[in-house]
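Budget justification aside, the reviewers requested a transparent look at the raw inputs and outputs of the sequence design task funded under Objective 1. We therefore reproduce one unedited record. The lines immediately below are the structure tokens for a 339-residue chain.
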């Protein structure tokens, strides 16, 4: 009762990284609140899920295993969470801001009249004083996310309705195993008690999942280009430099919108979040939406001809010059040093 719950996405037999990241954060929130961390997995053929989930500090793992629960469809998974939450009454529920999470979260929050904050960049525990009503609420979930196009950072609270629900994009939180031998309880539920047969009305006849073409989130070095690269040909130079550094190429939203680079390489609030050891920002002004997706990089190098560009304020090193001048020189010298 009144615990922290994380809905874990399953792809085949593997728990999604975003879910493991949320388990790590959920464990910290549960510690602050003095409650337990519980996880929910729903799918088909889920033997051995505990070995993937419990090491992140999960006290209870709820397993819903039935043929109709994989591949994901909206109605059965919604019924699983809605009916489970009516029984367990969690105070917090977290899920990934993925295609599944963006479909499932609003359905569950609407059915439970709980509210939902999407695309959070930070989650904290704190209090809130309603001076008008003369009430102070303790141990609320601060659901923090950029708002108004990224011009402000909003802290959203839900004082009275439960569960407090939030979705978080992959890469925003860190994934850390708490204890490889963590002992938690595994509860295997009778799915028929939670999901009516009518929920299986949608049948998946054929399913095609395309693998990503790059490893932007896992690369130790990321070279990102902005609108200042000027053209698609300008990005060709970044790919040439990336080849020499064994790096991946990313882009700001402005560069993607201009057609300089593919959308799946977009970094920022509406793209992916990366944490490389080295991040080289080329011709990027550094709007808050972009910074939200790369600010945790180990070392940040900014190449920009505008010495007052916002990106320079968070950069460890700034190269003041045009990308047309600097990038070819970097390619030249790295080629010489790699021989």
């Amino acid at each position: 009762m009144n615990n922290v719950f994380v809905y874990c996405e399953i792809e085949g037999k593997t728990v999604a990284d975003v879910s493991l990241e949320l388990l790590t954060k959920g464990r910290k929130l549960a510690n602050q609140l003095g409650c337990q961390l519980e996880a929910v997995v729903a799918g088909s053929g889920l033997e051995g899920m505990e070995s993937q989930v419990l090491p992140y500090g999960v006290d209870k793992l709820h397993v819903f295993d039935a043929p109709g629960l994989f591949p994901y469809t909206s109605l059965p998974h919604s019924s699983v969470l809605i009916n489970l939450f009516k029984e367990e009454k969690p105070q917090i529920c977290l899920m990934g801001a993925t295609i599944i999470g963006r479909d499932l979260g609003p359905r569950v929050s609407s059915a439970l009249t709980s509210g939902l904050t999407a695309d959070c960049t930070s989650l904290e525990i704190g209090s809130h004083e309603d001076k008008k009503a003369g009430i102070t609420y303790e141990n609320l979930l601060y659901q923090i996310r950029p708002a108004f196009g990224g011009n402000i950072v909003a802290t959203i609270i839900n004082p009275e309705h439960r569960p407090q629900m939030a979705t978080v994009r992959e890469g925003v939180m860190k994934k850390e195993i708490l204890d490889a031998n963590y002992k938690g309880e595994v509860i295997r539920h009778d799915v028929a008690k939670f999901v009516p047969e009518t929920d299986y009305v949608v049948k998946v006849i054929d399913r095609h999942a395309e693998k990503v073409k790059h490893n932007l989130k896992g690369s130790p070095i990321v070279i990102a280009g902005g609108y200042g690269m000027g053209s698609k040909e300008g990005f060709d130079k970044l790919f040439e430099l990336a080849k020499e550094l064994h790096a991946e190429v990313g882009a700001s939203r402005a560069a993607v919108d201009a057609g300089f680079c593919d959308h799946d390489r977009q970094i920022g609030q509406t793209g992916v979040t990366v944490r490389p050891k080295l991040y080289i920002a080329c011709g990027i002004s550094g709007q808050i939406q972009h910074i939200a997706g790369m600010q945790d990089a180990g070392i940040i190098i900014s190449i920009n001809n505008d010495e007052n560009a916002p990106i320079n304020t968070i950069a460890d090193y700034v190269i003041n010059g045009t990308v047309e001048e600097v990038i070819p020189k970097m390619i030249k010298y790295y080629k010489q040093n790699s021989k």
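The two ends are 63 Å apart (CA to CA). The longest helix spans residues 17-33. Computational costs for records of this kind are itemized in the attached budget.
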